[in-house]
Amino acid sequence: MVVRMESHDTTHDAIPRRSAGAVAPTSFAQELLWLLDRSTPGLTAYNVPRAIEIRGALDAEALRLALSDVVARHEVLRTTYAAGEHGPIQVIHPARELALPLLDLSDRPRASHAAEVDRIVLEEARKPFDLADDELLRATLVRTAREAHTLVLVSHHIASDGWSKGVLYRDLSAAYGARAAGRAPELAPLPIQYADFAAWQRDAMQGELLESHLAFWRERLAAPLPVLELPTDFPRPAVQSFDGARQVMVLPPTLVTGLRELGMDRGATLYMVLLAAYQTVLHRYSGQDDVITGSPIAGRTRAETEGLIGYFANILAMRTSFAGDPTFGELLERIAEGAMDAFEHEEVPFEKLVLDLREGQETPGHAPLFRCVLTMEDTLPDQLRLGDAEVRPYTIDYGQAKFDLTLLVAEQEDGLRLGLWYRTDLFTAAYAERFLGHLRTVLETAVANADVRVDELPLFTPAERAALDRWNATDVDEGEPMTLPALLERAMTRAAGRPAIVAPRASATAAGSVAGTQVLTYAELGARARQLARHLRACGVSAGAPVGLLLDRSADAMVGLVGVLEAGGAYMPLSVEAPRARLAQQLSESGARHVVTSAALADRLPASVQVVALDREADAATLGALEDGPADVVIAPEDPAYVLFTSGSTGVPKGVVVTHANAVHYARAVSRVLAGVPADAPGDGFAALGELRFGMVSTLAADLGNTALLPALLSGATLHVLGKEVTTEPARFAEYVAVHQLDVLKATPNHVLALAAGRTGRELAAILPRKWLVLGGEALRPDVARAFLAAGACRVLNHYGPTETTVGV
Q1: CA 156, CA 169: separation in Å to the nearest integer?
Q2: How far, in Å, CA of 271 to CA of 332, rounded?
Q3: What Cα–Cα distance (Å) separates residue 80 from each residue in 83, 85, 184, 499, 737?
Q4: Helices (H) and strands (E) in the chain, counts
Q5: Which of 421, 535, 621, 664 is 20 to 30 Å apart from 596, CA to CA?
Q6: Handedness of CA 91, 93, 99, 100 (dihedral sign)
Q7: Which is nearest to 284 in space by CA: 245, 238, 339, 228?
Q8: Given this model, what pLDDT does residue 195 score?
């Protein structure tokens, strides 16, 4: 339904009747629906279902005759559509009695009635119309008891709009009263039929009149036209499904009174206040300063059309600029002025407007120009009377949505009902509920103070604010601020004899043998790392200085990483698969002057950097001659710990510096989760992880490995650094985990699926870790999560941590 704006004739001449036998063209709006129907046969999105509960005595035969009377009275209900010489035409058929099938459920169990009536109503609502063959009003009567019925009426939008419901109910009431009394109805003759209006519209809406309207809209909708990009719960599909659902909220009378007063203060109607708030939320959600929404209007600007059933409704494109940081009051004045101008030019059919914009711009406009709509429902009573029976709407969700979001507003005794229809292929019910809550917050704030800047208006509801307070109550006594080297030294001392690193040997990598692994205890790791640290300090590495780490996954890579940290430097992993130019760019951007690498990779580095090749005989001898002791360096928590490069939005790598404070906080938080430390308990969780075996399957050049690397090494656990030949071949991976029994594994969901190679149940459980499967790096699909959980091998932690902020969610 749509609110009827004040009627105003564009000319003083009455709409004439068509000549007898003259071809009846479609209206512009009908033409669009006819073309849409031809391109998408069977489309039911434009069905107009109406269901009515009837309680009391009902004369079913009188009802059938009354419906036939209505069809006889309104030609549009007995019209089909065909292709004519110059476009689609209306084919008007002689009046005939309408069928009213009776589906009797009264002999079925009463408990089944509600579900069965729902099923019938939805089934009738979703039956497609054949516009070339079907008369466009279907009726079905469902009986659940002698004096309990549901009447289902379904028409097509090409023959009916929201205003038409009131006309239909009024005429049906009069006709039923007469038929129930045994006489034919005596209704005042209609001045014209819908086909007369369509022919008049085609003649009138051209030349100077049309051009004057189009000139206004061309200016109002000048390019570039914005396309509203709301955040969605699901990716936008290539083809819209029209599946929809609704969330409802009622604004109390006190708030509605405040909204009316706010409108009066700013020269605006209630509709304009609601439009300002609706567009404000869309602006805030999208971040766009140019917003267009649709607003349906009754479109019955001529007195002759008020008593007709038909498709007269038009839809106006309401474009609003949020430029200049307006207050809500200023925005409302802006919208009121624009709306009044739009109403002065409402005569131009929306379909003509879209066509004109496409033809008149170098960059075609987007039809239908908007993705979101605001509709003020007609507040007139339905006026359906069927004798003494009690009649009321049968409430059911028909499950369709033509736009991304459609806000339907209707006044009722207990306030203002807001119904938000949303596309279920884009949004969840929670999204729609949240949107309505934010809309109410904007309205309440605007009533309290219309001078608040739009971009400063709060959105969150009290419940959301309380939830945020609870979620952010995350203060934990993790212990004193520390650096990664300090924590590493503590772990290496406490777990000196335990295996720290299990990694592939250089020869094992070539042979692809799982058994060919190298094990470093914490004592061995510490000794080698401290020697490297002393050497790097002697070479000029200072606290916080970036040091490149160009090593494949190996024990040497871990020695290099810990050695750089012990020297006070910030380790900077470089991909062994990166081209020389990329390596040079990263080293140049970071200012790194030293790189720890291997002899085989050293020649890929620019001559400007000083290289330490851990497996080169001369470098190994130099390192081996150094004393085993801490490097002489003072490191602060705010100093850089590592540098990771991310491609960013441009594809050009950008270095992100992470401090010791951030890395330590992150490692402590993740370890608390993995160790199951209660949220209110002190400590960092490291002590409980010392006996576990962690598996790292990713490159060092991304933060994906940190969830395994940091908790393992800082807790004195064993870190298995799996080589590429194991992490890319499911059979070798299965062999590896069968031997080593990992407790914690961090990987992307798709990587785990690839390694699973189709395994399910116990076979899948055999390759999963014993305690935690930590997933991240990409979205986790629900079906994949269910598959991992069903295996029953471990708990699943869906973890997301952007490099730039060192967070774990």
Answers
A1: 16
A2: 11
A3: 11, 16, 27, 83, 70
A4: 26, 27
A5: 664
A6: positive
A7: 228
A8: 96
CA distance readout (Å), 718 to 38, 432, 519, 527, 709:
67, 47, 10, 17, 10
Q: In what order do the strands lie in the sheet with 795-798?
A: 517-521, 499-504, 718-721, 693-696, 744-747, 772-775, 795-798
Which residue in this structure is represented by tokens 């209900």?
A: 77
325 touches 185 (CB < 8 A) = no
Contact present, 551 and 601 (Cβ < 8 Å):
yes
CB-CB contact of 29 with 311 (8 Å): yes
Letter for the amino acid at 154?
V
Sign of the CA dihedral 61, 66, 70, 72? positive
Both tokens assigned to 725: 């030949």
HSE (side-chain half, CA atoms, 13 Å) at 139? 23
User: What pLDDT is recorded for position 632?
Assistant: 81
- Of 485, 586, 599, 552, the closest CA to residue 699 belongs to 552
- Contact in structure between 669 and 710 (CB atoms under 8 Å): no
Q: What is the largest CA-CA distance in the chain?
A: 117
Q: How far is CA 674 from the centre of its chain?
A: 31
Question: According to the model, what pLDDT value does residue 510 have?
Answer: 37
**8-17, 408-417, 503-512, 566-575, range with greatest mean pLDDT:** 566-575
Please give the structure tokens belonging to residue 43.
Answer: 């489309």
Asked if residue 171 lies in contact with residue 70, where contact means CB atoms within 8 angstroms, the answer is yes
| Residues paired with 148 in a beta bridge | 55, 145
Q: Minimal CA–CA distance to 640: which of 620, 656, 619, 618?
A: 656
Interatomic CA distance for residues 663 and 475, integer angstroms: 17
pLDDT for 188:
93
* H or E, element range at 292: strand 290-297
CB-based contacts of 341, cutoff 8 Å, min separation 6: 216, 220
pLDDT at 7 over 60: no
Task: Give the confidence band of 680 by pLDDT, cuts at 50, 70, 90.
Answer: confident
Pairing of strands 499-504, 718-721: parallel
How far is 149 from 401, CA to CA, in rounded Å?
A: 28
- The string of pLDDT tens digits covering residues 540-597 is 999 999 999 999 989 999 999 999 999 999 999 999 999 999 999 999 999 999 999 9
Q: How far apart are CA 225 and CA 202, in angstroms?
A: 28
Residue 801 one-letter amino acid: G
Strand order in the sheet with 372-376: 244-251, 415-423, 405-412, 372-376, 290-297, 314-321
Residue-wise pLDDT tens digits, 708-738? 899 999 999 999 999 999 999 999 999 999 9
What local confidence, expressed as pLDDT, does residue 564 receive?
Answer: 97
For residue 453, the 8-state DSSP code is B
Name 521's bridge partners. Answer: 499
**Residues 718, 733: Cα–Cα separation, whole Å:** 18
- How far is it, in rounded angstroms, from Cα 476 to Cα 315? 56
The CA distance from 668 to 655, in Å, is 24
Give the closest residue to 768 by CA, choosing from 799, 798, 734.
734
Alpha-carbon gap, residue 301 to 316, rounded angstroms: 14
- Mapped onto helix, strand or coil, the DSSP state of residue 491 is helix
